[in-house]
Amino acid sequence: MERLITLSTPDRRWRLWCGLVLGLFCWGMGVAHAVTPLNGAWRVAAPGDTRQSVLAEYRAGKLKSFDPALLERFPRGSTGSWVVIAPQPPWDNGERVLTIYPPSMGSVTVVTDHQSDTLALDDFSSPMHGHGRLAWRVPSTLPASAPILLKFEPSPTLSAPVQFQLQSWDEYLHQDAQWLVFASACFAVMLAMVLMAICFALTLRDVTFAWYAGYILCYALIQGIQTGFLFHPLDWQELSGMAPMVGAAAVALSVAFASLFMMRFCELQRHAPLLQVPIIALAVGMTQLVLMRSSGIVLLVEVAQTLLNPLLMIGAALLLVAAIVAAARGSRQAWFFLIGWTPLLLLTALTSAQVDGAFPQLAWLNDASLAGGAFEAVVLSLGLADRALRLRHDHDFVRVLADHDALTNVLNRRALSERASLLLASGPPRPIALLFLDLDHFKLLNDHHGHNAGDRALVEVAKALVAELRPGDLLGRYGGEEFVALLDDTLPQQAMHVATRLCRRVHRLEIPIDDGSQLLSVSIGIAMRQDGDDVESLVGRADQAMYDAKLNGRNRVYLYADGTPVNAPNRPRLHVVERRGNDR
Ligand SMILES: Nc1nc2c(ncn2[C@@H]2O[C@H](COP(=O)(O)OP(=O)(O)OP(=O)(O)O)[C@@H](O)[C@H]2O)c(=O)[nH]1
Question: Active site residue: 153, 171, 481, 482, which one?
Fold first, then answer.
């Protein structure tokens, strides 16, 4: 896992193209390029070595040979290693560039007759830099057949396997541009996802997006350091010399963020609660390592360095198990996590195995890790979008449940009052009618035919009222067998007309009971909105009108008429609008 902070590599024969156009992620492999055949040999450096002595040993065949086209690891230890790269015929006397891929963290010195050139990712003094690889422009004075001597300088970080290529200048520029396009696309995708996540974290106040942004940002930082993208072309000179430390911190933090993110994203609390404890411990442990590494205290730094890789491996296994368990137990998001994260985990495992000499021909794995990061960012973003959509559906559903009466499915009293208040407060003054409906002798229905029959009656009445009212009218269940309807922009005569229709409709209903069917009737009181009215006062007047409708025989509509007697002299406030024939 040390590979995470020390390595990266492109096989120049295979070029990956990665681009994002509105979520389309393209991945392509380029063509094989003609390169000069090379032979290689190396040995560990020893005190007192000189250019001449090492080359003499090389000519005498005393160095260990290797194939520069394949990944090979050279111990850096306390003295470093000598590497000889010998171009083979046909020799090319044109302008040539020697490249080392992936660009290792420590420096490499090219020792020629007259000078020594140092190649390093974070070296800004040299006029020429490779992108995503170390590059050395072969001087025109050096014969095409002359072996090139390199010294892999000592470095505290684990040495990563590298491959070598000797290319013509044009070929080099072509590949360099290709890599820049590829890497820029991958980083652009990751950073776009990070920005999106930060915006969502702030607007939705959902910390899951923040953990995700932290995780992808750290991963982009790791890749930026490993590939050298932060140094060339981004020219972050401030990072010079700090790359191993910043890289290690980014690795530890990325695991911490990934742990916190996956816990919420995969809903571990619901699907795998027991795994939450070790995952939180992992996140805390990783953060501790960052603090220890940056403490500057030698002992703590060393302990942190020792613990980093084992913790990384344990953490990766833990997150994988947790995601699999959550997915198996029904977490939809866990599938997104597995699809996005597993390829990256595989790539990390493969590149780590390369440190021990496995898969020397798969140099492109390092570029694939970069593309894998972009792929993961896109997949996890899709997962987050899916999650946000689901949460919104759940929210809407809960809202519907909270606003509606469970039995009749019309608005409940609270929701009705809220919406009625909004309606009364909205827009220019206009006539608004409130109808208060109370079923007649409902207790008798319950008592004689049971509560279930009563419930069925309430459901049927609600359906009938909904069918009879306009879609824009508000209808709610106000109490047991009481309903309230609010009719916007409705004159008294129109309200009476509607109420009469409702009255008739309810009376036409036949509620099935054990021994046949039961007819219902409803008494309705109407009140018109007046200046300064609120819901309570309006309901109060309509209730009074309904009460008088009950007192005057039920199954009828009364309009609260502001104390003006119409045809009910004993009840000056009330106005009998209709009296049904069969209720006389
Ligand atoms: N089945 C059923 N009955 C309910 C529900 N809510 C209230 N009730 C009943 O509705 C009846 C209301 O009775 P009352 O307030 O006496 O009114 P009423 O019998 O309709 O008489 P009037 O209103 O004077 O015509 C009571 O028996 C309540 O138990 C409900 O959700 N389901």
Answer: 481
**CA–CA distance, 461 with 482 (Å, rounded to integer):** 11
Atom 27 of ligand 1, residue of closest alpha carbon: 443
Q: Closest residue (by CA) to atom 31 of ligand 1?
A: 480
361, 396, 431 — which closes off a domain? 396
Residue with CA nearest ligand 1 atom 26: 443
Q: Which of 409, 442, 460 to mutate to test the pocket of ligand 1 (most atoms within 8 A of CB)?
A: 442
| 401 domain residue, yes or no | no
As beta bridge partners, residue 517 has 512
Q: Structure tokens of 76?
A: 């850096």
211 and 88 co-located in one domain = no
Q: Which CATH number belongs to the domain containing residue 319 in this structure?
A: 1.20.1070
Q: If you take atom 32 of ligand 1, which residue's CA is the nearest one?
A: 455
In angstroms, the Cα distances linking 439 to 47, 117, 141, 461, 577 are 105, 97, 107, 9, 18
158 shares a domain with 184: no
25 lies in some domain: no
**Length of the chain in terms of residues written:** 584
User: What token pair was written down for 507?
Assistant: 């009376």
The verdict on residue 402 lying in a domain is no
Total structural domains within the chain = 3
Domain that holds residue 255: 3-13+175-396
Residues 437 and 305 in one domain: no
Residues 161 and 230 both lie in one domain: no
Instruction: Answer whether 543 contacts ligand 1 (Cβ < 6 A).
Output: no
Do 218 and 310 fall within a single domain?
yes
Contacts of 87 (CB under 8 A, 6+ apart): 36, 37, 38, 144, 145, 146, 147, 148, 166
Question: Which atom from ligand 1 is nearest to the alpha carbon of 455?
Answer: 1
CATH number of the domain bearing residue 161 = 2.60.40.2380
- For residue 438, the domain's CATH number is 3.30.70.270
Query: Distance (Å, rounded) from C-alpha 226 to C-alpha 424?
Result: 64
Given a contact cutoff of 8 angstroms between Cβ atoms, the answer to whether 69 and 25 are in contact is no
d(CA 340, CA 168): 38
Q: Is residue 72 flagged as an active site residue?
A: no
Of 173, 192, 217, the residue at which a domain comes to its end is 173
0.95 exceeded by the pTM?
A: no
pLDDT in tens, the chain (584 residues): 334 333 334 444 444 444 443 333 333 333 445 578 999 999 999 999 999 999 999 999 999 999 999 999 999 888 999 999 999 998 878 899 999 999 988 899 999 988 899 999 888 888 788 999 999 999 988 899 999 999 999 987 778 899 999 999 999 999 999 999 999 999 999 999 999 999 999 998 999 999 999 999 999 999 999 999 999 999 999 988 888 889 989 999 999 999 999 999 999 999 999 999 999 999 999 999 989 988 888 899 889 888 988 999 999 999 999 999 999 999 999 999 999 999 999 999 999 899 889 999 999 999 999 999 999 999 999 999 999 999 999 999 999 999 999 999 999 999 999 999 999 998 788 999 999 999 999 999 999 999 999 999 999 999 999 999 999 999 999 999 999 999 999 999 999 999 999 999 999 998 888 777 888 999 999 999 998 899 999 999 999 999 999 999 999 999 998 644 333 333 333 344 443 434 43
362 lies in the same domain as 431: no
- With a 6 Å cutoff on the Cβ, whether 438 touches ligand 1 is yes
- Regarding whether 217 and 228 lie in a shared domain, the answer is yes
State the pairing for strand pair 96-101/108-111.
unpaired
The answer to whether residues 158 and 197 belong to one domain is no
